[in-house]
């Protein structure tokens, strides 16, 4: 017989189905299963992890709204290694750059985004005394970037188009003011 955590996980997976995102109230889910909201937190934090292909976003207040997002498996072995590695092991700057280059080559991030990520991961940006601490911090940052970059339905094209339209609107407003 399945335990309660298994039942909650199965319910969430069925509800998610083929969709890339599920938004649900933690309190309503807890009431449905007659458990404390902390039991829902436990299931979300142990069963819906980046290693398993998911990320969970939580909002305080309003009944504890939770969003479960399916992340893309890129199929790239190096990206998969980084996703499954322990942050405490760290990652060197050259290896981090290789991962970022693979993301760029796979079309997951743009050339500009790749340069920005590399700058954020550089030794100059990570001002800490010991190299091991830099590698650990770099691994945590890179892992979080990967989770965000690999979320399903977030290919960047729609966001880039929206940003371009917004920038065009700002430019048009500036042109009007200058007249």
Question: Could you give a quick summary of the protein structure above?
Answer:
By secondary structure, this protein is mostly helical. The protein contains eight helices and three strands; from the N terminus they run αβααββααααα.
Which key phrases capture this entry?
disordered C terminus; Phenylalanyl-tRNA Synthetase, Chain B, domain 1; three-stranded antiparallel β-sheet; single chain; mainly alpha; 179 residues; 3 strands
Structure write-up:
This protein is mostly helical. The chain folds into two domains: 4-70, Transcriptional regulator CtsR, winged HTH domain (Phenylalanyl-tRNA Synthetase, Chain B, domain 1, 2-Layer Sandwich), CATH 3.30.56; 74-179, no CATH class. 59% of the residues lie in helices and 9% in strands. It contains eight helices and three strands, in the order H-E-H-H-E-E-H-H-H-H-H. The protein has a three-stranded antiparallel β-sheet with strand order 1-3-2. Helix 1 packs across helix 3, helix 2 packs across helix 3 and helix 5 (93-105) runs antiparallel to helix 6. The relative contact order is 0.11.
């Amino acid at each position: 017989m399945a335990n309660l955590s298994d039942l909650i996980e199965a319910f969430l997976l069925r509800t998610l189905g083929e969709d890339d995102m599920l938004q649900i109230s933690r309190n309503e889910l807890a009431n449905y299963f007659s458990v404390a909201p902390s039991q829902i937190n436990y299931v979300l934090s142990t069963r819906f992890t980046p290693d398993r292909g998911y990320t969970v976003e939580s909002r305080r207040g309003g009944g504890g709204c939770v969003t479960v997002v399916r992340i893309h498996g890129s199929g790239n072995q190096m990206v998969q290694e980084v996703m499954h590695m322990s942050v405490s092991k760290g990652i060197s700057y050259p290896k981090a750059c290789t991962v970022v280059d693979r993301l760029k080559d796979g079309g997951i991030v743009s050339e500009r985004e790749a340069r920005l990520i590399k700058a954020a991961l550089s030794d100059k940006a990570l001002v800490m005394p010991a190299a091991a601490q830099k590698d650990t911090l770099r691994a945590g940052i890179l892992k979080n970037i990967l989770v965000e970059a690999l979320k399903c339905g977030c290919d960047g094209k729609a966001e880039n188009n929206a940003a371009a339209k917004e920038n065009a609107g700002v430019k048009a407003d500036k042109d009007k003011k200058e007249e």
